[in-house]
Amino acid sequence: MPEYKAPIRDMKFVMQELLNCDRHYQKLGYEDASLDMVDAIIAEAAKFTEQVVAPINQSGDEQGCTWHDGEVTTPDGFKEAYQQYVEGGWPTLAQNVDFGGQGLPHSLNTAITEFFSCANHSFAMYPGLSHGALATIEAHGSDTHKNIFMPKLVEGSWTGTMCLTEPHCGTDLGMLRTKAEINDDGSYSLTGTKIFISAGEHDLSDNIVHIVIARIPGSPEGSRGISLFIVPKFNVTDAGEVGDRNAVSCGSIEHKMGINANATCVINFDGAKGYLIGEVNRGLNCMFTFMNAARLGVATEGVAAAEASFQGALAYAKDRLQMRSLSGVKNPEGPADAIIVHPDVRRMLLTQKSIAEGGRALIAYLSQLVDVSHAPIGKVDEAEKASAESKLALLTPVAKAFLTELGLECTSHGVQVFGGHGYIKEWGMEQLMRDTKISCLYEGTTGIQALDLLARKILGSKGEILKPFGAEVTAFCVENAGNEAMQEFIQPIMTFGSDWQKMTETLGMKAMQNPDEIGGASVDYLMYSGYLTLAYFWAKMAKVAQEKLAAGGDDSAFYQAKIKTARFYFQRILPRANGHASCVENGCDSMMALDVDDFSF
Q1: Of 291, 381, 386, 581, whose Cβ has the fewest other Cβ atoms within 10 Å?
Q2: Which of 39, 46, 43 is nearest to 21 (CA)?
Q3: Of 391, 420, 450, which marks where a domain is finished?
């Protein structure tokens, strides 16, 4: 199993040198988030993930979770690691101080979330969904609900889930059958079955707070009739203490391709007591608070997968001797050269490195936008907040889908670098591939994210949503138009950006004639958008590296590597976007030409 090392140096580069987190935090009033504090938190998170979380990753996968009579037992070491996680105050980091949180920035919490996910995907999922549950209750719950549920969720002694999917409906939530009938005391009685509930039952926390969508009898059909509820595993007293068992049970756990150490549950609600969040029939609107937070979390999983697979593949490629270099012997004292000298191995390693580091920059940027969107007027003005929210709306589906698809590709490269050994469990590379595939599926598949981006966001706004981010990229290109050292990066961005605009306009026209053109183009359009977006961040990183080299210092190798990796991205990864553009241009006729009955075997 690869030995995980948190990428502290690169995380600091992104946060401090690329995005100037110190200025960002001071502007927003996070006085405790000094550079010294940020450095200390990152160092402690690295230590905890390397020494406590990573060592139980492979054993957790092998042992998996066990279900008996409705109760789930997590693998050996998970309960103890989670207790240390709570005792270390990690759940409280970016939570509201009014409920026991430390009140630090969302973006700082996102940075350490990558460490946890990279070290142990399954473990990171247990507390991960609690953040979405907290955000939903804080944004839409009553003061009573906040006071009862948030303190224990913040401290981590309780965990949260998101209960959407049912056996007969996944993405089409309007088909749900779970019903909620009002009780005399104003609470509700929920009855129904939810499936694929991550961390739906386990032995890590004292209570599990389910955020559940259901339909109140008499509500409209479809998504217009969905309401949202808090349904705890154990009923809770007015003082926020655990009471008797609620009518919530785990019917089984799924036997999955990956993330075996995380319990993916069938949850049955048999007249379970629940509490309405927000307004009746407005549950889906409230749920988007949870889903948007979760989608950025899943995008981070894609980056973590790329980083973990890169670390494992790099260590192996430096050690494994196979064949001689085509350009001459590199290891004359040995029987063969290390495989890292071979161009095709370099191709795979640099693909992993460029996706991990470029994705890390994109996630850090988006998490700073979340900071801005949460800031009160006064710390930021309304225009700045609106711009941040627009960029988040545009780039969240891109980040979620693009980074998870490429994260999965990177895990495949990791297996490939190891050759036959990569297919063997003891090396740990195949586990990364199995664990990562789910990230392309949950919180909305790649196809769903693509439709959200193209149909709802871009065409739905008549292209207006593109303007704030497009203006930012254009301003960067104009600013560096006279910088000769930056032209290898600026010129492609300008070309691809212009083509992106034309593609969008053409699609809008074609969609008016044939709506299927939207579905036919959406994934290719999203992937094109992703490659261009990551090119922008690689260009920005290259500029910072050039400036640091010009200033002199002791870290020149790091900055030289940044520029060389940026060059690889532009020359070997960005051109993939042209293939996606061709697919969009060719339209959907070939997709739809076969009649349904012609699909046969």
Answers
A1: 381
A2: 39
A3: 450
Residue 467 lies in a domain: yes
Question: Are residue 308 and residue 333 in the same domain, yes or no?
Answer: yes
Q: Token pair for residue 293?
A: 């937070």
Strands of 217-298, DSSP E: 227-232, 234-236, 242-245, 248-253, 264-277
220 assigned to some structural domain: no
- Show the tokens assigned to 12: 């600091």
Same domain, 476 and 506: yes
Which residues neighbour 521 within 8 Å (Cβ) at sequence distance 6 or greater?
454, 507, 583, 584, 587, 588
**Count of the separate structural domains present in the chain:** 2
3-class secondary structure, 325: coil
Check whether residue 467 and residue 402 sit in a common domain: no
Q: Tell me, yes or no, whether 437 and 471 share the same domain.
A: no
- Residue 357 belongs to some domain of the structure: yes
- Tokens 């217009």 sit at which residue? 224
Start-to-end Cα distance in the chain: 41
Tokens of 289: 């608070």
Domain that holds residue 376: 287-450
Domain at 298, CATH number:
1.20.140.10
- Answer yes or no: do 441 and 473 share one domain: no
What is the residue-averaged pLDDT of the chain? Answer: 96
Contact (CB, 8 A) for 307 and 114: yes
- The contacts of residue 416 (CB under 8 Å, 6+ apart) are 348, 422
What span, in angstroms and rounded, lies between the C-alpha atoms of 364 and 367?
5
Same domain, 426 and 321: yes
Residue 598: partners with Cβ closer than 8 Å, 6 or more residues away: none
- From 450, 474, 496, give the residue that closes a domain: 450
List pLDDT tens digits, range 543-580: 999 999 999 988 999 999 999 999 999 999 999 999 99
Q: Would you state the structure tokens that stand for residue 18, as one six-digit string?
A: 């690329």
Neighbours of 67 (CB within 10 A): 17
* 472 and 439 belong to one structural domain: no
| Residue appearing with tokens 């154990």 | 234
3-state secondary structure (DSSP) of residue 186: coil
Asked if residue 242 is part of any domain, the answer here is no
* Residue written as token pair 């700082």: 108
Task: Just list the catalytic residues.
Answer: 443
Q: pTM above 0.90?
A: yes
- Residues 531 and 493 reside in one and the same domain: yes
> What tens digit of pLDDT does each residue of 32-65 get?
999 999 999 999 999 999 999 999 999 999 999 9
Bridge partners of residue 241, in order along the sequence: none
Nearest residue to 466 via CA among 399, 390, 580, 389: 390
3-class DSSP string for 468-519: HHHHHHHHHHHHCCCCHHHHHHHHHHHHHHHHHHHHHHHHHHHHHHCCHHHH
- Phi, psi angle pair for 2, to nearest 5°: -60, 145
* Token digits of residue 463: 């292209």
Q: Residue 298 region, left (φ>0) first, then alpha (ψ -120 to 50), else beta?
A: alpha
CA distance 300 to 306: 10
